[in-house]
Structures are given as structure tokens and as C-alpha cells.
Amino acid sequence: MGVRPLRRRDKTAWRIVRTRNQDWLRAWEATLPPGSAPATSTFSSMVRESRRSARRGQGMPFVTTYDDRLVGQVTVSSITWGSARWAGLGYWVDRQVAGLGVTPTAVALVADHCFRTVGLHRLEIAVRPENVASLRVAEKLGFRQEGRAPRYLHIDGGWRDHVLFALTLEEVGRGVLEEYLRRTGV
Description:
Blueprint: E1 2-5, H1 11-20, H2 22-25, H3 43-55, E2 60-66, E3 69-80, E4 86-93, H4 102-118, E5 122-127, H5 132-140, E6 144-155, E7 158-168, H6 176-184
Parallel strand pairs: 4-5
Antiparallel strand pairs: 1-2, 2-3, 3-4, 5-7, 6-7
């Protein structure tokens, strides 16, 4: 299990995984509200925009790997610098490896990178209350629940409530991954 930056040459593997999981991920995927400008929908444009965002220090796209194959994605977005130094984390995983600890491990690796290398102070995760598996990821990694945000994001064609979680540098101890492994006995 691991993470690495998203690359252009991931196109075929990414499309295969996304196509195979389209129905499974639909209920959790962000959508554009009516009246929005059309989204750029090609893989190449997504990679290009992700790289621009990374160069500006506003985001970081990672792929999740398992047995050296692409099985998901962890995205750091909305990085805010200055006195805030925070970002949001989003993630998805191939249904074929769900439940194997792939996502918590990947999110922990990215969180440690954000805290220890990038220099962020706070990370946030927003999860639909119905997404039990994703709620468990945040809880397993020690993210503290901060509240509920009504109609927080446009998901699957409508404005959906989310549960908000956060973690700060002071709370990670030896590191998010190390604490996760210690707590779960993995």
C-alpha cells in the first residue's frame, strides 16, 4: 500500500478503476449545481489543473496504490496558508480493495506528509453521514468530529449534509500513520 503523485501516464488505470466503480462511488461524488459552468471532464485536463493547483500551493493530488496498481485517490485541496495553514482531504477507493485498510493507510500517509513536510497545521475531512465506511476512516485516524454542516456540498445531484472532522499537528503525536497502526494493532 502506498501513495504517490498523480501522473499523466495513470490515465488508463485511473479510467478502468473509475469506470468499474462508477455506480458504487456516485452517491459520494461531488457534482456541479444547476447553472454552473461546465466542468472540464478529461483526465488530461484534470491532471493539468491538479498540477497547476500544486504549483500554486493550493492542492496536491495523490493516487493510492495496492500491489503496485492504482486503486484510488487522495486529494489535498483548498490549502490555505498565512495564519490558517489548513487544507481539506478527500478520498475514494476501488470497491475491490475496500475494507483492507488501504484508504486509512493512504490518508494517514498523506496527512503525515501534509503535517511533517508541507507544514500544514490543520486537516479537515467532510463526510456524508450515510457514508459509514468513510466515517470510519476519519475515526480510525483520530480525526475529531467537530459538527454537522447542513447542505455543505453538492453531491449526487443535490445539496447534502456532511459531518466535519479535523486534526491538528498537536494531536498527531508520533504521526498519523504510526498512531493508526498502534491503535489498530496492524
